[in-house]
Amino acid sequence: MGTIRDLLQDDLIIEEMVSTDKMGVLREFARLLKLRGRVANEDELFHVLAEREALGSTGIGDGVAIPHGKLNSIPEMIVAFGRSRRGVDYQSLDAKPVFLFFLLVTPADKPGDHLKTLARISRILKNSGLRADLKQAPQRQDIQRLIFEEDGKYPQPQPLANT
């Protein structure tokens, strides 16, 4: 596992999501990852994400959601980002619209990396200034730069020790 800088590639940032509801957001991310060649099966990813949402919303509040899931069919972790300037009814824990979405998809055999990356994403999104800046960032490159700058404020993750 690396930093968000290592994981979030420019072609996996959606400047303006078109979806207006939770399932649409999940479908939009699944389609993006299929189009970019990161997953072979869009429907498989969508179903994994939808199953996770059925356990409880990944809309964590403050206008943020972190949809996530695990797939056997991918070789490495995938991180994507999406923004909705108008907000999406995501059944968030605080019942408010979601504007910022981080998608995390991890190989099923890497649960430790999955949890560490979820925690790292949650940590950087606690910064209210960053959330405000991401909502207003004019272009994909600006979004990526803001995320990388915030992620760079925290120590580099260490690999799990082999015991």
Please summarize what this structure is.
The protein is of the alpha/beta class. It has six helices and six strands.
Structure description:
With 163 residues, the protein is α/β, with parallel strands linked by helices. It contains six helices and six strands; from the N terminus they run αβααβββββααα. Strands 1, 2, 3, 4, 5 and 6 form a six-stranded mixed sheet that branches. Strand 2 and strand 3 form a beta hairpin. It is globular, with a radius of gyration of 15 Å. The mean pLDDT is 92.
Produce the secondary structure layout:
Blueprint lengths: L3 H4 E7 L7 H14 L6 H14 L3 E3 L2 E2 L2 E4 L6 E11 L9 E10 L3 H14 L3 H9 L3 H12 L12
Parallel strand pairs: 1-5, 3-6, 4-6
Antiparallel strand pairs: 2-3, 5-6
Helix pairs in contact: 2-3
Taking the alpha carbons of the first and last residues, their distance comes to: 18 Å
Any low-confidence stretches, pLDDT <50, length ≥5? none
- Please, what is the average pLDDT? 92
Task: Give the overall shape, derived from the CA principal axes.
Answer: globular
Structural class by SSE content: alpha/beta
Percentage of β-strand residues: 15-25%
Which sheet architecture does the biggest sheet show?
6 strands, mixed
User: What is the β-strand count?
Assistant: 6
| Range of helix content | 40-55%
Tally of separate helices:
6
Using only C-alpha atoms, the radius of gyration works out to 15 Å
Which series of helices and strands comes N to C?
A: HEHHEEEEEHHH
Oligomer: single chain
Keywords:
alpha/beta; single chain; 163 residues; 41% helix
